[in-house]
Amino acid sequence: MWNGGGVARVRLDMLVEIWSDVVCPWCAIGKARFDKALAAFPRAQEVEVAWRSFELDRHAGPSSDAGISYASRLAQKYRTSVDQANVMIDRMTEQAAQEGLTFDFSIANPGNTFDAHRVIHLAADRDRQHQVKARFMQGYLSEGAAISRHEVLVDLATEAGLERDEVEDTLAGEAYADAVRADEAQAMEYGISGVPFFVLDGRIGVSGAQPVEALVAALDKALPAASPLEMAGTDPEAAACGIDGC
């Protein structure tokens, strides 16, 4: 019997989900490297990127550890000396500079990032997620922005293209809170314990701020082939009709 149904559409695009936090230095470095990898990838037009929420410190307050240097906080977190923490800071700063980024940890203003992630979800709905994500990272890592404060988030998000009133309304309520928690639950399901973490096509994971070449290779591996079929059959001479006739 002939079936008059439509032909199924072949999916040629790929979703890249990136779990990160806006106060994470390696996430900013990883973003810069991924941006370069995507620019160098021949099929970049087939790649969709979505930023997923990950809080490095869910228990951070609105002005956590105020007055304590970044090096001291880092030393406490990793149970090391302040001198060793400064070595870590120097390494991150140097790596960032190689990617065209400027970090200034001497003015870092720590705090809870949950609301920042809510605004990033709003930005996704307004097609401004990449711009808002980048502006939040720059604000915290380069400008000493108090990323937990609503008035700061409103200013930065507005600079990145969102409507001020809409950002204020979002922060005044609980909008996108469930979306942030859903991202974090998915991260737990994947076993993600550190960021940045890239999930390509829902099946390939890449952990950390990998080199550009490694990210390009991962994209190439993950993107579905133009022909989605895996060929089976043992007779290469089996009869078939071609474009030139039968």
Q: Can you characterise this structure?
A:
By secondary structure, the protein is of the alpha+beta class. It contains nine helices and four strands, in the order βαβαααααααββα. Strands 2-1-3-4 form a four-stranded mixed sheet, sandwiched between helices. Helix 1 links the parallel strand 1 (14-20) and strand 2. Helix 2 (70-78) packs across helix 3 and helix 6 runs antiparallel to helix 7 (164-172). The protein is globular. Residues 1-11 have low confidence and may be disordered.
In whole angstroms, how far apart are the ends?
Answer: 23 Å
As a percent range, the share of helical residues equals 40-55%
Query: How many distinct beta strands?
Result: 4
Mean pLDDT: 89
| Uncertain residue ranges | 1-11
Number of helices: 9
Strand order in the largest sheet: 2-1-3-4
Q: Largest sheet, if any?
A: 4 strands, mixed
Class derived from helix and strand content:
alpha+beta
Gross morphology: globular
Q: What is the H/E string? A: EHEHHHHHHHEEH
Kindly estimate the percentage of residues that lie in beta strands according to DSSP. 5-15%
Task: Return Rg in Å.
Answer: 22 Å
Question: Strands, helices and their partners?
Answer:
Layout: E1 14-20, H1 25-40, E2 47-53, H2 70-78, H3 82-98, H4 114-125, H5 129-143, H6 150-159, H7 164-172, H8 177-190, E3 197-200, E4 204-207, H9 212-222
Parallel strand pairs: 1-2
Antiparallel strand pairs: 1-3, 3-4
